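[INFO] parsing input record for Flagellar hook protein FlgL
[DEBUG] input buffer:
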Amino acid sequence: MRISTQMMYQQNMRGITDSQSAWLGYGEQMSTGKRVNRPSDDPIAASQAVVVSQAQAQNSQYELSRTFATQKVSLEENILGQVTTAVQGVQEKLVNAGNGTLSNDDRASLATDLQGLRDQLLNLANSTDGNGRYIFAGYKTESAPFVEGASGVTYAGGEEAITQTVDTARSMIIGHTGKQVFQTVTSNAVKEPDGSVQSDMFATLDKAIAALKTPIEDGDDTAREAFTAAIDSANRGMRNSYNNVLTVRAELGTQLTELTALDASGDDRTLTLTQQMSDLVNVDYNAVISSYTMQQAALQASYKTFSDMQGMSLFQLNK
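[DEBUG] output buffer:
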């Protein structure tokens, strides 16, 4: 096999080019801090990095969703805390109303107090968040869920509670409808003598207020019995409403606890994914600096070899 001058030249140039490319590659890794700067650097690591990157993006989205959910659930729980206090006030007034020694004026005064609490509860039921959206309107957040008319308070909000996906395969209610809070009872609700159950908080209050406003003449036992029955019924209805509000609050409290746990799991997942990504694409500075130095020495040796070969006779003969 004959070795021509051109072949020797090409082989040496190829060696220099390869060494220079490797040396520049190590330099790029040191400047970017990444071992894989393009898919061709390590196709397998690059493809795995895409999967990890998608997992990181999904994890970040869930983290944002949990932040939003925590804000919504906390706001609802805060409002229901005020509702609980108002309902307790109503129950106290109803207990006082059962006092048989009260005069018509006393009952009228209690009716005024109950009216104030009823208006407070209606205002809480139509609470909005910081963006003007109604909290208890379901997905119909642009309009007030409870509307007062000639026949009393009616629910005009959405029928479906707002849900939010907060983690893989985990969704939760972050916004109950007003019907679920103010017009629903628990499974162990107290029944009326006829077997029915009072579930509408505002209808119960309206009946109690109307009964308190109705004067009772001395000696009118029928009217007094009707009043006593109305107040007893209101007590049962408000007890049902109170228990339902507490049940919803308990659910919200459980969700807040779960969101905290999911945040902790999400933080752990973030650390794990970050480490996986680092292992796949980030550079080992100790190794790359060593390789860079060695490749630099190899490149300098290639330059010197090429320079020395130009002094050989074969090159001279081809001049």
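[INFO] The chain has a mean pLDDT of 84.
[INFO] shutting down worker
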